[in-house]
Amino acid sequence: MGAGNNIPFPVQSFCHDCPIPDVQDPRPCPTISTRTLIFVKVVEQGSFIAAAKSLGLPKTTVSRKVQELETRLGARLLHRTTRRLGLTEAGSIYHEHCQRIARELEEAESAVSQLQSGPRGWLRFTVPYSIGITWIAPLLGQFHAQYPEIRLDMHMGNEKLDLIAGEADLALRVGALPDSNLVARKLGSLRTQVFASPAYIERYGEPLHPEELQFHRILAMRKPYHTGNSPRFTWQLGENGGELRDFPVTPLMTANDMSALNGALVCGEGLLLTGDVMAKPFVESGMVRRVLAGWTGPEVDFNAVFAGGRLVSPKVRAFVDFLVEKLNFDANYMLAQCPGAKLAQQQKAQEDAALESSGKRILEKVAASAA
User: Fold this and answer.
1) What pLDDT sits at residue 329?
2) What is the set of domains in the chain, with CATH numbers?
3) Given 70, 193, 234, 269, which is the most exposed site by the fewest CB atoms within 10 A?
4) What's the pTM value of the predicted model, to 2 decimals?
């Protein structure tokens, strides 16, 4: 047991209904008892002495309040030795609930305080690099102009910070929630699709079916489960929104973030399966276009994720509301940017017919000269 989450502990502020709002008052508080909050602080600090120093109280007072709490509950909460304190089974269960209550009380005070002066303070959030660069970073100046009292700290990367432990106030994440204690607000949706540059198509041709991907040059995102020297890569695609199938690919280049592969995509070095949202600027500029018409990957949500609770920090709420207003992700947008499969097949048939006709003319000339 060591220092855990640093939960501020304004003792008297939680006992306004008590006739004498002081830690010496043994009567139970109508909301949450002072003894309980002292117990949380003891566990957080790891000793009675450290807790007493943090609270500005005598060690004997802190020890007595914990003993009174144990008496009231009829259970021992702490193992006491000369060297350290440890939680009993009952203490561990009780502390888990009390810590959450203490945090919510802190959030309540913070929310009321900020309500008087508006959203303010540092807001630390995390976002995948590709989306952060393309979509979020261009909006930050506008957000700060609207909320000048909020300071922003953007962490870009694919690793997931622990929101419950307070490593960040907010996470912008793609996909399903990994933790039931987190709350998500949908900002939009995206769908993975296959893209190529005109230079690639001219040089290597265009795949008309995912089975052909194994013969093409591939740029692929490396996932955490891709370990070893020769990991197996597959792309998940479904036809016209149907069941997804795995198609094997052999990458010539991999990266842990799609944005690192954009340069190679534009230069015509390979095909890339990426989110339509990330590819949109390149498609609109004509640098790349979608291939494999009718085949798409899974549709996933892009969410603003934060720790659950009845209260949401005003600065978090302000930022999420801003993103909901400004972002306009539409998983169906890119479908309109690709020529239909039928048209692509017709073009291929015309090319084959032209080659066949040319071959026949050559054979006729050879036969005529031989005669």
Assistant:
1) 63
2) 11-117 (1.10.10.10), 121-189+302-326 (3.40.190.10), 191-301+333-344 (3.40.190.290)
3) 234
4) 0.56
